[in-house]
Records
---
Amino acid sequence: MSGDRENTTGSAWRGTTRSRRATSSSCTYDRVRITTAPARSGGTMEAIVERVLTQAMERLQAAGKVPAELRLPVVIERPKREEFGDFGCALPLALAKATRRNPVECGKELMAAIQAPEGLFEAVTFAPPGYLNFKVAPAAWFQRMKDVTTIPADGAGERVLLEFVSANPTGPLHVGHGRGAVLGDALARVMRAAGYAVETEYYVNDVGNQMAMMGLSLHCRGREVLGLSDGSDFPEKGYRGQYVRDVAAEFVATPAGKAACEQPYESIGARDDNACTHFAEERLLGVIQATLKAGGIHFDRWYVERTLHASGALAATVQRLLDQGHAYRDEAGAILFRMEGKADEDDRVMVRASGVPTYFAADIAYHDDKARRGFTRLINIWGADHHGYIPRMKASLEALGHDPACLQVLLVQMVTLTRGGEAVPMGKRSGEFVTLQEVLEEVGQDAVRFLFLLRRADAQFEFDLDLAKSQSMDNPVYYVQYGHARVASILRKAAGLGIAVPGWTDGMQDVLTLPEEMSLVKDLARFAGVVTSAARRCEPHHVAFYLMDLVKDFHGYYTRNKHTEKVISDDTVKTAARLFLVSRVQSVLAEGLALLGVSAPEEMRLTADDEPA
RNA sequence: GCGCCCGUGGCUCAAUGGAUAGAGCAUCGGACUUCGGAUCCGACGGUUGGGGGUUCGAGUCCCUCCGGGCGCGCCA
């Protein structure tokens, strides 16, 4: 288990000094985006408000009322209290602080400098001690309904390589891998929706001691099958899972496998490169791939470590570091990478005194290769137990002439499994663990994915198998999916009556007057911003929480009004407008669920008694 | 010992340094002859682990202590 680096979020760099720069530069980036593409059709309401305020600031600067060189991040937020309006901004407080003036004066000045497009705001108010609050006119909200599923291409120009799971082919995936897998897959989808060019990659770590131990384990089990061993010579650190016996049985059923097991392990080739390790890799990688497929996890590329050794890329990278003085040979003949005092770390071995390169050396060559392929960002999702590996990875990138900041490691915290309140032991070598495959079969792909995505990655996660299974009907994912199915049902009913779902027309806002309808319109308008924000922050869980919000409002709208203001009524104008609205809800639910890799069913039934015989 | 992550209602979890910390589950009390009752409404429930500090403003940043998890290999 310790050999894998499966698991999420920006926490890896959050605590460093670099993180502050990253935060403020993203604000700058937002301002650039808005000024360079002010007319972007998919711009979010937040972006529009932000632009209005940014321009107000620029106007004050042009008038000499604010220092021209002053740059303040314009942070638009949604106020917690409804009476404050749709958006709020504490810019007057920030301006007051920066200019050492009274926040009330700053607020009044800013308000006077605001030149919003006609009809955008219903009200702009100043609230002590220094907030500007904006209430957007209903008509402006309704204008967003034309394209609620259009996401601004925030990530345009970014080429991202997202590496995740990358578990050794030494056994089936466990639930911890599943968390990283689901996060990575969802993040790829979310970032692609926001315009990033994302490629996903699985690094197949098929070289080294772990693989050698796998081969030896297989060899021993094979000998047991053949009656050549009673198992007493099984290595202490070998892989003890039943799956090894299964693979061994298949192995010795082949002539080559039988022959390999009849000879001493030392005689069949390199310890990590022989008939046993090759067979294990092929079979176990197949198992891993089948599980990932069952979980809906897709990879664009499988990058095999052995190719780095075979091509000479690894040796060349080591030589380059030696030549440039970033590495040296010690008295024993080992080659070490110089940490140069960075992060208080010791120098790290790249090539052992025996001449065999370490995992670290291969990983350096791999990341060098990634960077050379022209990606602007390298995102790795690792299990939290690998956090100590980050400084040396960054240092090695820097030594090779790459910007270490392009590497972003998202750490996923451990998943602890419980069943009936008791911890389930996990450990690949002991063989006692619940596989991801089993959990997927027991709980279902949609529920597993949604559960994983319904929390931040940098918090530990207690996954109670009994709870996940027994409460499956109360599972949030079904609540969201049910909303989608419910709209589908309404649309089917309309279709049965010969009523088509219309496109948007301006008259619709005059009949969508229920408070719940206005709430839904605002919810829908928020979708694009949620997606771009989730992509920027590498936190797909925001999408899951948004969907919960949206569907809650929809269920409330439906239930509260189902006897008085039905979607489908005798009023053809209202019917058309409401069909449009609920169809938009359905689209956003479908789109949002797709971003998480969760299905959006047209119908859901508890019982099968109405199924055709 | 050193380093990283986490600590938020009974439980599981949210919350860009902003305004009176929010959901779900559970509990209790209600609604509706269903375009799908897998729904909805309400109530109860908090000194955000403790203590200092920075700030106009801290769940969020800094220090310290406590508690939980994980690292600190010529393993991967």
Note: Chain A is about 50% helix and 10% strand.
---
Amino acid sequence: MQELRTSLVEALARATGLPAPQVDGMVGLPKNPAHGDLAFPCFALAKRDGKNPVELARALADDIALPDGFAAVEPTGPFLNFRFDRAAFITRTVQSVLEQGDRYGAGAPNDDVVVVDYSSPNIAKPFHIGHLRSTLIGWSLAKIFRFLGHPVVGINHLGDWGTQFGYVWVGCERWGRPADDDPDPILALVDRYVRATKLKEEDPSVEEAARDYFRRLEAGDADARAFWDYARTVSLDEFKAVYARLGVAFDHYTGEAFFNDKMDGVLADVEAAGVGEVSDGAWGVSLGDDLGFALLKKADGATLYLTRDLAAIDYRHRTFGFDRVLYVVGAPQSLHFKQLSALCEKLGKPYHDRIVHVPFGHVHGMSTRSGGAVPLVALLDEAHERALRALREEVTKRPEGLDEDAVAEQIGKSAIIFNDLSRGRIKDVHFDWDAALSFRGDTGPYLQYAHARINGIAARAEAELPDAVDGSRLPEDEAFQLAAQIGRFHDAVRKAAATYEPSAIAAYLLDLARQFSRANEVLRVKDAEAGIKEQRFALFVACRQTLANGLRLLGIEPIDRM
RNA sequence: GCGCCCAUAGCUCAGCUGGAUAGAGCAUCGGAUUUCUAAUCCGAAGGUCCCAGGUUCGAGUCCUGGUGGGCGUGCCA
């Protein structure tokens, strides 16, 4: 696909005298696929020459030397439409997928290190649906950049430090710690946290006690530290269970606490740069009208989130030598990251312009009846239940001997993950159980279904891959459209990386699955005559491979039967 | 007040760096299964792309100004 485009751009550049990059910007896909496979609008050229674009397109069609791989050029009004040599295109595309397998669409190894900071839940707070977006988007981006050949460092910057810990501590002091045999100790800790923060409304001493606890923790007080260790371990155990269930992983769990002993260094840095100042008893850096005052040390001496992020990025730069660091954090914190960049610039840090905030919109409407956020585990369990029910009651045909429980778990997760990653990051989402856990239409299960169907063909159609792929045996339009979509995988992956948008891949995969489903109505493998049978099978296998590669980039493990 | 983000079909959303008749899914209506999985496919219906100007041969897309909503705006993270 890419080579065809490049050679067409060169040919057009020669024929028109326009610079190739400009031509490249004009060549695009025709809106209506019936028009052709690539299109060149002649307006700009017509304007330059003071000619009629319709006549110009006609003249250009006669002039241009059709590059290899193209079968036809035809002017349609002011557009010049090009058609591929379809058979050759199918042959080339299917062949390269079969040859490259899991590496189809991948990039060459390079040295641009990408650090991805994602998930980063707060300790001693429930891991709820609100944490899902950062977790899934970050994990997907990590996989995408790794696929493109980058060394990737995935970091869970746990919120395991800060005043909120004080409230958990106060709560445990008042109402006791969860019992050792408590099956869900984190729930108990959350309960203490919620009760303590509620109590603070009427009893100001609670807030004071919480702050005092955090001060002691930062100062290295042994008792405070012991409680912190306990709460962190309990929380992390549960987080790791959720990550394991989702199939999400990290290279490091260096949370905010990890940087506690690096605070002095940061503050000294700022001091040395001579940009720090005292304001209302607190200490920080003034960043001007737009970014305001960046607080780095509270009046009571305790540090803040920003201080710890400053330490973290410096540490990451020293340790990983990153080319970029991606912060997959909600849009409400965009000011925070602008401040972080500005601070780094003021401090003369070489990485100040390599900070990328990858923001995402708010999630609304995910509260339970009781007002708390829905725990992620509850969502996963519900997804599992619904998938099981759908499998047993709604699905009309299904394979024999399925491990229904295992399939339901996979389908449920696919639905949840895809639902989140299929929309653009920045928009606020209104969480809706029925939409998130729908298994029909544009959903994760739809993609899985396409993948499983091809597996079914492989298992039952008694077809084998041909010795040589031959696209001329696949003259149907559906075959070409499917191959064309397979050939666009590169573009989708690169667009996703360039825009930090996994949804680019999600949208691509929907189109791919749709093209497959259409082709699957027409191109039967089982009863096809020898010679055609193998070619159709090869096309579908290439599709399955592409689906699998794309699904994995979203963090969804393709399933073989459903 | 100031700053950032969002606004496209009844609902949820796509729309490559401006290009041809604005696309999917859900919901509604109508079809398709003796044939590799109907969690599927085909069709119908559904639109002042929030409003008003501007730039351009051409604007859902870019600019300006509004309207509506969300978020942020120093001692939380």
Note: The radius of gyration of chain A is 28 Å.
